Amino acid sequence: MVARPSLVSGKSRTDVSKKKLILLILLPIALFLISLFLGRYPISPWTVIQVLASKILPIRHSWPDTVETVIFQIRLPRALLAMCVGAGLSISGAAYQGMFVNPLVSPDILGVSAAAGFGAALAILLCGNLAAIQVSAFAFGILGVILTYLISRVYKTTPILMLVLSGVVVSAFFGALISVTKFVADPYQKLPAITFWLMGSLATASLKDVLMVLPSFLLGTVGLMLVRWRINVLSMGDEEARSLGVNTERLKAIIIVCATLLTAAAVCASGIIGWVGLIIPHIGRMLVGPDHKWLLPASVALGAAYLLFMDDLARTVTSAEIPLGILTAIIGAPFFAYLLRRSKGGWT
């Protein structure tokens, strides 16, 4: 008789989480449609719907060609890329916070952002070609995490503390290399380009960028979704997880590989955008709870919606576009301070 209410309440909590998750999934879809008619070139919502539907249905072409160019070559790729980057950073942050059992962990904890930033700065310094910048950023981001993982290996194990300390070392090293590239760069052309890229932006987004990010995003997201229930076990601690039959070393490696793919792809496509992977998992935890079964999908939806909203603000609030990294920090830092006050330093 005592167990029955707990089962009912557990089922009730599951139903509530499902309903919240459905609403969260609808949020980025709604913002995506809104993003297509927001901008300096005014396009009515009805025209946007007609243009999109014309690719499927036989609708008479009653709008100028400029409208299709703006929607399909500028706003649509930018909105899709913002959703991919936001979702990738958010689910990576949620997975890392569960693995490290630390609410202050973000996707760049293992040095991927600093290493990718150096790769991009180096490519800007040497050639300035956009494709080379993106490839270099992605490659160095992967290299930075590999170095962190190799440094942290102790007696065929990877303690959490060693991972964190190794990530600090690698981030500091590549941060110093970024400073070197800034020091030797041409102050009139190369230095402004490096500085602007490091602040993060989606101003040059194209369909090619979306196609470049999509494989890494899908692979990393699917990988984390498949092991999301095991992250719950890993968050209890290594010894507890091993006692329950979980291969902790293999699980950590899977999480790190998936999160690195997502973060490196995000950084190479948009530059360094902070705070997304730190605060979005906290918001998801407030809405659907700490169970990673619900938290990871919620983080994907919230991250996509959040960065899409930030990008809409960045390109519409002022005449000159605001770098995304600045905007997410200005809004993210006070909000995180509010979360700390609200939780009184606790975390569940």
Could you explain the architecture of this structure?
Helices cover 76% and strands 0% of the residues. It has one domain (19-51, 64-343): Orthogonal Bundle (ABC transporter involved in vitamin B12 uptake, BtuC). The protein has helices at 3-35, 45-53, 65-100, 112-126, 130-152, 160-184, 190-199, 207-226, 228-234, 238-243, 248-270, 276-288, 292-316, 324-343. With 348 residues, the protein is mainly alpha-helical.
Estimate the global geometry from the Cα principal axes. globular
Please give the domain count: 1
Radius of gyration: 21 Å
- The portion of residues forming beta strands comes to under 5%
Topology-level CATH name = ABC transporter involved in vitamin B12 uptake, BtuC
CATH architecture: Orthogonal Bundle
The number of distinct β-strands equals 0
Mean pLDDT: 88
Distance linking N and C termini: 29 Å
CATH class: Mainly Alpha
Task: Supply the helix-strand structural class.
Answer: mainly alpha
Descriptors:
single chain, 348 residues, mainly alpha, ABC transporter involved in vitamin B12 uptake, BtuC, 14 helices, globular, disordered N terminus
Write a brief caption for the model.
By secondary structure, this protein is mainly alpha-helical.
Topology at a glance:
Elements: H1 3-35, H2 45-53, H3 65-100, H4 112-126, H5 130-152, H6 160-184, H7 190-199, H8 207-226, H9 228-234, H10 238-243, H11 248-270, H12 276-288, H13 292-316, H14 324-343
Helix pairs in contact: 1-13, 3-8, 3-11, 3-12, 3-13, 4-5, 4-6, 4-7, 4-11, 5-6, 5-11, 8-11, 12-13
